[in-house]
Amino acid sequence: MKRRTVLLSALGAVGGLGALVVGWGVLPARSRLGSPDLMLPTAGDVALNGWIKIAADGSVVLAMPRSEMGQGVHTALAMLVAEELDLPLQRVRLEQAGADTIYGNVAMLVGSLPFHPLESEGGDKPTKVRVGEWMVGKIARELGIIVTGGSSSVADAWDPVRTAAATARASLLGAAAAQWKLPVQELRVVEGLVSHPSGVSAHYGALAAAAAGTAPGTFTLKDRKDWKLIGKKAPRSDIPAKTNGSAQFGLDVRLPGMLYAQVRQCPMLGGAVASLDAKAALAMAGVEKLVALDAMGGSTAGFAVVGKTTWHARQAALAVEVKWQQRAQGALDSQQIENQLLAALDGTSGDTFFEKGSVSQAQADAKRVIEATYRAPYLAHATMEPMNCTAQVKDGKVEIWVPTQVPEMARAIAAKVAGVPANQVTLHVTLLGGGFGRRLDVDFVAQAVRVAMECQGKPVQLGWSREEDTTHDFYRPLHVAKLRATVDAQGGISSLSIQSAGDAISPRWLERGLPALAGPMDMPDKTTAEGLFDLPYGFANQHMAHVATRMGVPVGFWRSVGHSHNAFFSESFIDELAFETQQDPVAFRTALLKDAPRYLAVLQLAADKAQWGKPLPAGRARGVALHESFGSIVAEMAEVSLLGGKPRVHRVVCAVDCGTVVNPDTVAQQMESAVIFGLTAALYGKIDIKDGVVQQTSFPNYPMVMLAEAPVVETWIVPSTRSPGGVGEPGVPPLAPAVANALFVLTKKRARQLPLVV
Amino acid sequence: MELNINGQVAHFDAEPDMPLLWVLRDVLNMTGTKFGCGVAACGACTVRVDGEPTRSCVMPVSAVLGKRIQTIEGLGTVDKPHVLQAAWIAEQVPQCGYCQSGMLMAAAALLEKKPKPSDADIDAAMSNICRCGTHQRVRAAIHRAAGTAA
Q1: In this structure, which of A21, A508, A621, B136 has its CB flanked by the most CB atoms within 10 Å?
Q2: CATH of the domain at B103
Q3: Is the predicted ipTM greater than 0.90, yes or no?
Q4: Which of B29, B96, B136 minimises the CB distance to A384?
Q5: Top-tier CATH class for A36-105+144-242
Q6: Which pTM value belongs to this model?
């Protein structure tokens, strides 16, 4: 494979074609305010736009297109509304948003552009960045893909949701001014009560009907100095129900006459049923039927057994005697794949994602070369709530209840499987018992609908066992990388070049979930190279390339995606360079961050709070890592010792610049969450595939960090007035290298693979 | 069959070897107790049987007849939350929340045995898996409820 440089050629083609054909390119970007009729009509409520409805009691209903999976998004978006409308947070209620494109996630698509983050550091973004973002933003508004992922929900909602609330407020005030014949500038709002110094007042509910016919006129978003809610710790609205068992996850849906289905898929990934004998299984008490399941939405084929409870269905599914067959292309094997990827690191292949100066010149002039090869395995998501979906197919209509990050993809696959138009599918998004990217896929939705079609109109809850969940995931792909630096005559690092190899994720995901958008060939996928091509360090000569492969293992988005392994590669290697050139790891990074002040501030804050340089008790060491992802920069300092030959992480200090913070307690929660998630991967995470079969099956052989092993996590936030960045994922990438770098201090041995082997 | 659940008698039909978890969830529609792994490894299904924290996914219903069963639905009420539920809200413990019923039931059993638990006591008693990483807030909330907060 020859090197090629990543260009935005496809986007240019799409935009250019649009401009030529319909002049689309010069039209203003589609508004995301939306018309009132997009909201669910409810008696007594008045919708003022596609996001905001005013209830008779003066409370406000927000159309919520994002899924709550523990990241606090339901509270964060409600805070934006409460802020602009001057309401107490508890007076904002949520209603599931419909299917309109105004609810599509624009920020996530814009964030998928392969631009180096430093290019956008200054006040003025370079033209190619502005054009790329404008173009993709415009396309994203047209596509309107509703998705919760990419740590993008607050960044995406920041303008449209605040604008929707501010518009509603302007109409409400306009209505009051007209009704009272008073100048609108003299009105004020306190906790949803509009009043005038003359004594007249009314709450929003009393003004809503008139507001619906009142143009908002000119309005401005609140100045940040006037914020009462944004930036202050707010209790999350979903938490009380999560302490008393009343929170409704997908598996908690209960409907009259509901049946339960349990799935068994071919253990060999991509394989199928050769033959099966279900006589004994179907004769068991409480068992209804067996439904064959083709491969759908990226799943492996198998079958489901339907029974009167989950337990009856599961017992019977296990009792089915089945002969499985391997996929036609032959059995998958993760060791073989790793060998193939390592062989692909030939130094010349792949897509170039970043280039600066001349690495070849630096190599020619080098006094010394430092080189290392790093590896990271396949990983499963292991959400606590296994995959599930409840479906009812009746009279040409489909109704589904599903914990999903992609409701409209769920709707589309449900319609396709049932053979009905999408508008005949009613969809309910439940709470998600964890997502981490697994619920960006809808294979289990297709299965539930397929089974429901055989259940004579009765609702059926299709669930996966833990074993099915672990062995039939869309895995974080196995990746390898070769990193090479040159040392010049003065002993400084003169170049850094990185070549990595592994499966692309986005094209596979598009193929199975949004086939209309999957092109005839794979475009270079940022998710494979992020965390390698976008480093902040000012090495004069750099070259970063990625060899995209397609090995056949189902791969998907795993919390922090490419960054999850690439930060381990890059930040471990940066640490190697510091030690190889006899420099302190923080001082070494600091010297290379002269042109990256945001990164430097984050690193300094972490160093201060962790008291970098202050001696630790014997047997303990600190490690540092710094990484940008999803628009946010996180530095982590891990304090590590060896306990019985195994790493024990005692404390992790996190410093984060995630732009403007909406709810600081959520930021802290997500840093704590990311540290445990990252630590589980660093210490234990590994999926092996042999003879096509995933070897890890459940928590006993795919272990998680337990409470007794959990480090103390501290979170420190760098104050910022930038637009919000991501929070759910950026804490994950720096954890593994921070721990690995501390381990090196303890063992003098560099761990270059995950999970870390001491 | 009948079971004493949260101080009330529940009548139902079930095979004796059916795990308590599925009796609760699919027969009695008490969905607060969660399914996580089915092999007693994660603790999402933890209930209390005569006060003891018990992983209900592997406990045949026939083995708990005549015993006092407490589930998350019986830990406290909205008006009168258990001290742990109040602490869980004060510390903002749950994220996705799926494992939290089991966490709370394990913590309730711990506090009954050790009203002033040490960190080591908490480490030993809280063997539930949480994928969201609420670990340090779980610890903080138990200390808060026990009045042993640092």
Answers
A1: A508
A2: 1.10.150.120
A3: yes
A4: B96
A5: alpha beta
A6: 0.96
